[in-house]
Amino acid sequence: MNWMDICALEDITPLGSRIVAGPRGDIALFRTAADEVFALDDRCPHKGGPLSQGLIYGKRVACPLHNWQIELESGEAVAPDVGCAHRHPVRVENGRVLLALRHVAACA
């Protein structure tokens, strides 16, 4: 897997996001209150709303359009909603956020 250095962890505010241009559209990087970082396509599976503009709580993001809840770890919509935002491998090393852009992890 080819890892790309995207930014410093501090460049993403806690409970905030940052957008990265990916080969298939924008990717949203999310930072939780516990400094965990997750990466999902920046499109809600419902109507394509920008997940990067949603509210982050725990390990979920709420789509700003219709309040669908999306699990950051898997990209899966929370029941009763059904759908998936594709997730991307991301990690934090030495305070830097690294993203693997070529690999798209499908939902389970």
TrEMBL record:
Q: Which PROSITE patterns match?
A: RIESKE (PS51296)
Instruction: Give the Pfam families listed for this entry.
Output: Rieske_2
Molecular function via GO? 2 iron, 2 sulfur cluster binding; metal ion binding; nitrite reductase [NAD(P)H] activity
Q: Name one GO biological process term.
A: nitrate assimilation
Kindly give the CDD domains that the UniProt entry links to this protein.
Rieske_NirD_small_Bacillus
Instruction: Give the SUPFAM superfamilies listed for this entry.
Output: ISP domain
**Keyword Transmembrane attributed:** no
Q: Which Gene3D superfamilies match?
A: Rieske [2Fe-2S] iron-sulphur domain
Alphabetically sorted, this entry's keywords are: 2Fe-2S, Aromatic hydrocarbons catabolism, Electron transport, Iron, Iron-sulfur, Metal-binding, Nitrate assimilation, Oxidoreductase, Transport
Signal peptide interval = none
InterPro entries (UniProt xref): Rieske-like_NirD, Rieske_2Fe-2S, Rieske_2Fe-2S_sf
Q: Which residues form the Rieske domain?
A: 4-99
Stretches assigned to coiled coil? none
The text of the family note is: Belongs to the bacterial ring-hydroxylating dioxygenase ferredoxin component family.
Identification of the protein by name: Nitrite reductase (NADH) small subunit
The organism named in the record is: Pseudomonas panipatensis
